[in-house]
Write a structure and sequence with these properties.
alpha/beta; Glutaredoxin; five-stranded mixed sheet; about 45% helix; about 25% strand; Thioredoxin_domain; Thioredoxin_CS
């Protein structure tokens, strides 16, 4: 599956209805965002079992504010509804592919236990 545009109306449901969701927060005026877009799309096409969403921070300013986006591109990863990765900046393709594999390999029981301890 290619990438899909996420909006304030679809963001939360997409996160909760899918096992793994990556979200790329971007803007049309952002050079690094445009450089990262082909990498994001390519990795999305290699992983049809994962949802790869894109949020246009200009069109979805309230959503970007709610997600506390202060720098773009901002990449987030959610697993079973939990935010497990958030980092600004464009990743090289190999690093992004490794990140996707790491998110797939997460032991979510361990993640939830750690979040409960920190909570």
């Amino acid at each position: 599956m290619a990438t899909q545009d996420l909006t304030a109306d679809t963001f939360e449901q997409t996160i909760t209805d899918n096992d793994i969701v990556f979200v790329d927060f971007w803007a049309d005026w952002c050079g690094p965002c445009k450089q990262f877009a082909p990498t994001y799309k390519s990795v999305a096409e290699q992983n049809p079992d994962i949802v790869f969403g894109k949020v246009d921070t200009e069109a979805e300013q309230q959503l970007a504010a709610a997600a506390q986006i202060s720098s773009i591109p901002m990449l987030m990863a959610f697993r079973e509804g939990q935010l497990v990765f958030a980092q600004p900046g464009a990743l090289p393709k190999q690093a992004f592919e490794q990140l996707v594999q790491q998110v797939k390999d997460l032991d979510m029981e361990q993640v939830r236990a750690q979040m409960a301890q920190e909570g």
